[in-house]
Design a protein that fits this description.
Structural class: alpha/beta
Helix content: 40-55%
Bound molecules: NADPH dihydro-nicotinamide-adenine-dinucleotide phosphate
Number of strands: 12
Number of domains: 3
Strand content: 15-25%
Radius of gyration: 21 Å
């Protein structure tokens, strides 16, 4: 790594040694953009990298709420407003007990470049809380969301910062938060995306991340004269992204062998078809149950609970052609990556953000398989969020077909952009470098043009 890049990375490590996820995201990014330090010297002169790793603003706040027993509970709320060079901050809210500043800074950093790749005018942000919606009643979730929004409402706005959903934040939570914002501000404006279609939401927003992921994978395969049709696929997770990834893979004629949740993995050699997927949707979205029930319902499937002491995930040790991690960060470690390669995987398309550890990344990249980084491959969600903002500004609602067509076009454009940038600045089919560099070039250009702010 060049001295200039290494210095920025060293500074991040020195400043926040206890933020491992953020350091990991910055390290991976710096490895890609390092080659630009000589080609585009103004990024050093204007201290673009130094500024990019420092959020424009971090807001942290107390969220008090009443549980069903009338007891006051306290959680921590955050919003990281990372970079507004190309538009209002945009990025999801995550409700999960693991949420902390390191995770949100990594997500906000990634989001900045992802949003730039969509071609829409959106800056990068991310937020959330260590609140765990699992096992909470509807009333508790509503009271928490209202309290969270009571504080967050001061810091967001349709031209300032427009949050959306992420892990633990789906249509229900967005609805409760939107209702509270409206009550506080007396304004019906698009301050959140992922809203219900009856109050300003865009059609295809729930589907967008999973559908977009499959569209991007299909574009990558098409360039190699391959397709998804008839191919065995592995999907992890069973939340929003996983469900719609499976749905679109089925539309494309692929066979999906696996899904999972935080308790365990199901492996179904006969394939997860439309009927079984409908079962998963009801299980996870309505009953909020566990994937173990899948194997009770469909006897041909095997359920393997996560084993805390195991160093590998059995989901990544199944013979297949293509893999779609859609659960959470660092879900594929070095050994898992080696298992994927040994089992004949030819493409990994990331639905979750940063699903691979740095070591796993190296294994996958060195193996020569196609690797679609989350910044590019899961950008469909935020892209349709951008389209939701456009619809809200116009006070119009586009049809599902119109939105889906735009989503397909955006994912094709992302593929073209990252592959041509990879060829120009790195090597053919190095989509990790392609995505990092393409995202970076646009954001840095805007930052330089706007002076030292
Ligand atoms: P959901 O909360 O809807 O689903 C997350 C899924 O991952 C659940 O099945 C959950 O299981 C599982 N999971 C969570 N932690 C673990 C773990 N440690 N091991 C195994 N499984 C786990 O979230 P989303 O589907 O929205 O998000 C999934 C990923 O996609 C995240 O990385 C998110 O940042 C990323 N993403 C999401 C976008 C969106 O539009 N929603 C957009 C772009 C990226 P359980 O049910 O037990 O909690």
């Amino acid at each position: 790594m060049h001295d200039a890049t290494q210095k920025v990375l060293d500074h991040v490590i020195q400043l926040d040694p206890n933020q491992p996820e953020f350091i990991q995201a910055v390290t991976s990014f710096m490895n890609s953009v390092d080659s630009l330090v000589e080609e585009v010297p103004q990024i050093v002169y204007h201290k673009v990298l130094d500024r990019m790793v420092e959020p424009e603003r971090v807001i942290m706040f107390r969220v008090p709420w009443f549980d069903d027993d009338g007891q006051v509970q306290i959680n921590r709320g955050f919003r990281v407003q990372m970079n507004s060079a190309i538009g209002p901050y945009k990025g999801g809210l995550r409700f999960h007990p693991s949420v902390n500043l390191s995770i949100l800074k990594f997500l906000a950093f990634e989001q900045t470049f992802k949003n730039s790749l969509t071609g829409l005018a959106m800056g990068g942000g991310k937020g959330g809380s260590d609140f765990n919606p699992k096992g909470k009643s509807d009333g508790e979730v509503m009271r928490f969301c209202q309290s969270f929004m009571t504080e967050l409402s001061r810091h967001i706005g349709e031209d300032t910062d427009v949050p959306a959903g992420d892990m633990g934040v789906g249509g229900r939570e967005i609805g409760y938060m939107y209702g509270q914002y409206k009550r506080l501000q007396n304004k019906s404006v698009g301050i959140l995306t992922g809203k219900g279609p009856s109050f300003g939401g865009s059609f295809i927003r729930p589907e967008a991340t999973g559908y977009g992921l499959v569209y991007l994978a299909a574009a990558m395969l098409e360039a190699e004269n391959k397709s998804l049709y008839g191919k065995d696929c592995l999907v992890s997770g069973s939340g929003n992204v996983a469900q719609y990834t499976v749905e679109k893979l089925l539309h494309m004629g692929a066979k999906v062998l696996t899904m999972s949740d935080s308790s365990g993995v199901i492996i179904d050699p006969s394939g997860i078809d439309e009927k079984k997927l409908a079962f998963v949707k009801t299980l996870k979205n309505v009953r909020r149950g566990r994937m173990a029930e899948y194997a009770q319902q469909f006897k041909e499937a095997t359920y393997l609970p996560h084993n805390g002491s195991s160093s590998t995930n059995p989901l990544w040790d199944v013979k297949a052609e293509y893999a779609f991690p859609c659960a959470t960060q660092n879900e594929i470690n070095e050994l898992d990556a080696k298992n994927l390669i040994a089992n004949g995987i030819k493409l990994v398309a990331e639905g979750s953000n940063m699903p691979t550890t740095l070591e796993a990344d190296h294994v996958l990249m060195d193996s020569g398989i196609l690797l679609a980084p989350g910044k590019a491959s899961n950008a469909g969600g935020v892209a349709v969020s951008g389209l939701e903002m456009a619809q809200n500004s116009q006070r119009l609602q586009w049809t599902p077909e119109q939105v889906d067509q735009q989503l397909q076009q955006i994912m094709k454009n992302i593929y073209k952009n990252i592959s041509s940038v990879a060829e120009k600045y790195s090597t053919k089919n190095n989509f990790v470098d392609g995505a990092n560099i393409a995202g970076f070039l646009k954001v840095s250009d805007a930052m330089i043009a706007q002076g030292y702010v």
